[in-house]
Amino acid sequence: MSNPDNILFLILLAGSILLYTRHKTLGSWFVALVAGLLLSINIFPIGNLIINPLEERFPQRPLPEEIDGIIVLAGAGDGRVSMGRGQPAVGASAERLFAFIYLARKYPKAKLVFTGGGSHKHSDAAHMMFQQSTLDVKRVIFESQSRNTYESAAYSFSLIKPKKREKWVLITSAFHIPRAVGVFRKSGWEMIPYPVDYQTAGPQDYRVSYEGFLNVPKVRIGLHEWLGLFAYRVAGKTNQLFPTPEGQQ
């Protein structure tokens, strides 16, 4: 339901088929609906309107002089391609790994955790990238069993057993920070958010756009994240529907 390009394709397909039946009027409406939605996404900043509130929820703040650990959530690497080609393959969220490497060098005494597995083993791609960037991979604890944000928090907490007063930094995409912080907070692990991989230039980024289908991923990402926040709250995986920087209100 949170993948608008697939939904639009199915509506268009259904409409095209109906054009050759006695329900051609309904088919015409379906085709016109898809055309209208695509035109709207093409011209109006719908994706930015959906994503920007997520990215602005936890603004960037200076980090403390000393921290105890750094966690980065998977999602930037493609383990299948990495293992098949013998070199790291990263995608649109590569900023997560770049930020992790940067902070790992800035805080040489901090514990390092990469969390997230899935069917393509994101940790394989991350491991290769860390090696090629000359980061000491022996410093990094790889949690590669989790399949989603909730499991990443649960498995990492069980693995690290952090103490109450420890300062930990959480790296993930800015639009994903609210849900990620909420999940870790629910587990009893308060995080210092470090948002990266921004999709918008800021609150002022509501200009008319002519990027066409390039705008569709923003709508997909935004809808997926808002639905994820709702689903996690209903399932009791977070304490707040839209987690706040100040903690539970």
Structure description:
With 249 residues, this protein is α/β, with parallel strands linked by helices. 47% of the residues lie in helices and 10% in strands. The chain contains nine helices and five strands; from the N terminus they run αααβααβαβαβαβα. The chain has helices at residues 4-18, 24-43, 46-56, 79-85, 95-106, 122-132, 149-160, 177-186, 216-234; strands at 69-73, 111-115, 140-143, 168-173, 192-196. It has a five-stranded parallel beta sheet, with helices on both faces. The longest helix has 20 residues, at 24-43. It is elongated and about 70 Å long. The two termini are 30 Å apart. The mean pLDDT is 87.
Proportion of residues in helical segments: 40-55%
Strand order of the largest sheet: 3-2-1-4-5
Q: Assess the beta-strand content as a share of residues.
A: 5-15%
Uncertain regions spanning at least 5 consecutive residues: none
**Structural class label:** alpha/beta
How can the largest sheet be summarized?
5 strands, parallel
Q: Tally of extended strands?
A: 5
Distance between the termini: 30 Å
The helix count comes to 9
Q: Looking at the structure, what is the overall shape? A: elongated
Topology as a string of helices (H) and strands (E): HHHEHHEHEHEHEH
Q: Compute the average pLDDT.
A: 87
Alpha carbon gyration radius: 21 Å
